[in-house]
From TrEMBL:
Keyword Nucleotidyltransferase found: no
GO cellular component: membrane
Segments crossing the lipid bilayer: 12-32, 38-61, 73-94, 100-117, 129-148, 160-181, 193-211, 231-251, 263-279, 285-302
Name of the molecule in the record: EamA family transporter
A Pfam family assignment: EamA
Topology in membrane: Multi-pass membrane protein
Keyword field contains Disulfide bond: no
Amino acid sequence: MTPNLKPKAATLYIVIAFAIVYVVWGSTYFFIRMAVEGFPPMLMGAVRYILAGLLLLGWCALRKQPIWNFRDVINSGVGGILMLFIANGIVIWVEQVLPSAMVAIMVSANPVWLVVLDKANWRVNLRNPATLLGLITGFAGVLLLFGQELGQQTAHVTAGYFQGIILLALAPVAWAAGSLWSKGKTSNSPVSVNTAWQMIIAGLAFLPMSALNNEFAAFDAQAVPLRSWLAILYLILFGSIAAFSSYVWLLKVRSATQVGTHSYVNPVIAVLLGVFFAGEHIGFWHIAGLVVILFSVLLINLDKYLKRSLQGSPGRSPFNWMRRRSRTTTCVE
């Protein structure tokens, strides 16, 4: 069970954290588009993560939490560089040359790479038919969701199109590696402190990239529209502080594969927001994709649901015959 939490309280916190990661990160597509109307992409990443990290670190200091431990800062920095700077930075950059549908499809490979790189749990994940089927089903659902738009947009190929594809293929690998790094490192600091340092260090890494891209010279703060400032505020408070903090905490109390299901659910939220707030059209294949994606999340979590419902009745899970002698080390104790 989650340390120092009663069972019902722990379950409630986990449900809330998943809801935040699913919904808020699904909405960031919409708000990032608003933000880049006034901010250059690399500068936007720097502003978003530095401010979010400083605000969270300040909050931790007010709560008298220890905010400096050299080893923990270094470990947090590695995770932040991999997840926020490399993975998210690639996504921001390639959206200048690739259609958003292609970006969404390739980023949805995060859960697959979480399984591939999670060597410590290969015996569990690769022998769990529900998990494997869920991963494949979720990716198929994303293809259904964006397949029609992808076919229409790939006809317009720009000069950097193929270079963008190569770069984007690295983003899910970096995100999965950073997630597993963060999960595997023991820490003497609170999760919120480690999260703050991840964002600060990643934000600082965006600054030289912004300078190399000559974004400082072209940026005029007075010319930034109000909607872009409000979008940055949303990304800082909700997309970074609330959602990323929830994600890092979930990595400590749930398996990386289970937490990685956000990569399948976020596109669902993005489509729904587009329909209800941007007047976008949703057709049959969109609905089919949404259903398939939600079903994949159920499959990935199915074994844990069965374990909970059949607690005290060992051997009754239909998947136990595949791995009776194995035991997951990523469940909450």
